[in-house]
Every structure is written in structure tokens, then in C-alpha cells.
Amino acid sequence: MKEEEVILVNENNEQIGTMPKMEAHEKALLHRAFSVFVLNENGETMLQQRAGHKYHSPLLWTNTCCSHQRVGETNIQAGKRRLQEEMGFSVDLKELFSFIYKAPFDNGLTEHELDHVMVGYYDDAPVINADEVASWKLMTPKAIKEDISVNPHIYTAWFKIIFEKFYQHLLDNIEKK
Fold first, then answer.
1. Cβ distance 60 to 152 under 8 Å?
2. Residue from 113, 132, 146, 164 carrying the catalytic annotation
3. pLDDT tens per residue across span 54-91
4. Which of 2, 28, 38, 166 could, after both became Cys, cross-link 110 (CB 3.0–4.6 A)?
5. 3-state helix, strand, coil in the chain (%, to 5)
6. 126: helix, coil or strand?
7. Rounded to the nearest 5°, which phi and psi values hold at 2?
8. Could you write out the DSSP letters of every residue in 51-106?
9. 170 — phi, psi (to 5°)?
């Protein structure tokens, strides 16, 4: 099976090439990614705990799903595809914002991503893919923010950045369902 490729971009989100995912993470090259947040009618966010065998951030809590776009795929198409693959359902998604972050990991890999953040709404339980997800739970944004301040080590790097930089933005957009 061919290794998944990521789309290399410049800071203006213009595609400059593709590269195998692991190589891009080894070289810390900027590439396109996305993070999906799914909320229920109570304003709770569905979090996933990453599977234990993931090559970075295993068993850490993060947003509902995240991954990398494929060539020719829109952000929304990629988000819907991965949401189905990881959490077993599909919903309409709305793109909120994007940002660039760089996070080195202890294993020598670095996430350097232009991350597109999307939101969708769903009120049922997911049917998680155990190859991708260890567990899931629902939390309010306020509870997440409080837990990150007490237990930062149990959350992924990008998830903490999103909550640090965009907490109010998330709240404002979540309320405008």
C-alpha cells in the first residue's frame, strides 16, 4: 500500500508540491491539514482519544477528527471523508478559519501545518474505528479549556493551540449554528 501523501504549501496556502506524509513530518515541511469539531445541540464538543499505535500523539485527546487533504480534494470533502473513516458518521461542515502551527515531537517528527478548522453538528453517538480512535467523549468548550489548563499533557499540540488562540472565535461561531 502506497504511503499517504500530503500537500506541501506556502504560507499563502498555495500548493508547491506533494510528499509522503512521514517524509514531510521528518523534514518539518509546511503542509495542508484540517481539524473537524463536531458539536451537539447542547454545545458540547465531541472529542476523540487517538489510537495507541499512532506514530505521534498516541492516546492523547483531540478534536473530533483531523488529517490531511488529498490532491484534488476540498477542505470540506476531506473533513467529511475522514470524519466517516474515524468516527463512522458524516455531517455538513462549515469552515471557520485556518492557522499555521509547528509542533516538534519526542520521536523526531514535527507537525508543521496550515490547519483548516471546520465545525459540524451531530447528536448521536459515533461508531468509532478502533484502528484510528481509542475512545470518545463530549465536553463543553469551557470544560475543555479548564481541563487543558489542569492536564495539558493529555491533549494534542494542535488542539491546545486551537483552544489557546481561537477559543472565543469557536464560541462565537458555535452559537451561530
1. no
2. 113
3. 888 899 999 999 999 999 999 999 999 999 999 999 99
4. 28
5. 30, 35, 35
6. coil
7. -70, 140
8. PTT-SSSTT-EESSEEE-PPTT--HHHHHHHHHHHHHS-----EEEEEEEEEEE-T
9. -60, -45
Whether 113 is catalytic is: yes
What is the CB neighbour count within 10 angstroms for residue 25? 23
Radius of gyration of the chain (CA): 15
CA distances from 58 to 30, 50, 104, 157 (A): 22, 5, 14, 12
Helix or strand or coil: residue 35? strand
- Report whether pLDDT(177) > 70: no
Give the residue among 129, 162, 134, 149 at the shortest CA–CA distance from 58. Answer: 134
- Cα separation, 167 vs 112, whole angstroms: 21
Rounded to two decimals, what is the model's pTM?
Answer: 0.91
CB 32, CB 69: distance < 8 Å? yes
Instruction: Return d(Cα 148, Cα 57) in angstroms, integer.
Output: 15
